[in-house]
Automatic annotation (TrEMBL):
Its EC number is 7.2.1.3. This is ascorbate ferrireductase (transmembrane). Its main location: membrane. It comes from the Eukaryota. It catalyses: Fe(3+)(out) + L-ascorbate(in) = monodehydro-L-ascorbate radical(in) + Fe(2+)(out) + H(+). InterPro entries: CYB561/CYBRD1-like, Cyt_b561/ferric_Rdtase_TM. Pfam families: Cytochrom_B561. It is a multi-pass membrane protein.
């Protein structure tokens, strides 16, 4: 039996603290500064969808998918249990991401009118890659007909593309924050040195930090100390 080393535990706690900070900041921005998300239709329904987009994409997609990546580092139990939880969390993140994109494209303007910026292009590419990655992961690691050699050959690519897609999701969120804040400041709706600007900038920094920590934990060697060794040293 083994336990997580102190350094690995510290990284996991730091990742959780970063995720908690990001969650608080995006909730504060969406719920306390609702007027910044007010659509041109002034419809209450459209406002709800506008508020749901950052919440679903940051909390539902980035935070949950990040937690799914960390599962293999902290969850005790069998390998199959870890893979099951990982796949379930990634599926939940995928559902949140798809619904989050739909909240933007469902309006009267349609898909084409909203599909013009780098943020929107990267978002659709990211979600397409994430969906394909989830499907390949399901087929490769859960289909009983797959031979072991095939799974071993696919694993490095699955890990690489998973981390790449997660990093792309963080970068896409950053472009969205920049696009939104620039628009609000240009229209004079938000002060450049105001509270809302500070919250959005803090959210961007928090996402960058979170993404780095999650990827670092994922690529770090699994430093686990056998329990028997600890007992012997004592």
């Amino acid at each position: 039996m083994a336990i997580i080393s102190f350094s690995a535990l510290s990284l996991l706690l730091f990742a959780r603290l970063s995720a908690f900070t990001v969650g608080i900041l995006v909730l504060t921005w969406a719920l306390h500064f609702k007027t910044s998300f007010l659509p041109h239709t002034h419809s209450q329904e459209d406002l709800i969808y506008a508020l749901l987009h950052p919440l679903l994409m940051v909390i539902g997609f980035i935070l949950i998918s990040g937690e799914a990546i960390l599962v293999h580092r902290w969850l005790p139990g069998s390998r199959n249990l870890k893979k099951s939880v990982h796949l379930s969390l990634q599926g939940l993140a995928l559902a949140c991401g798809v619904f989050g994109i739909w909240t933007i494209f469902h309006g009267q303007d349609g898909i084409v009118a909203n599909f013009y910026s780098l943020h929107s292009w990267m978002g659709l590419i990211c979600m397409s890659m994430f969906g394909a990655q989830w499907l390949v992961g399901f087929v490769s690691f859960w289909h009983k007909g797959e031979v072991r050699t095939t799974r071993v050959r696919v694993l490095p690519w699955h890990v690489f593309l998973g981390l790449y897609t997660y990093g792309l999701a963080v970068v896409t969120a950053e472009t969205g924050l920049l696009e939104k804040l620039t628009f609000l400041q240009t229209k004079g709706k938000v002060l450049k040195r105001g509270t809302e600007s500070a919250i959005v900038n803090g959210l961007g920094l928090g996402l960058a930090l979170l993404g780095g920590v999650v990827i670092l934990v994922a690529v770090s060697p699994k430093h686990q100390i056998p329990k028997s060794k600890i007992m012997y040293s004592n």
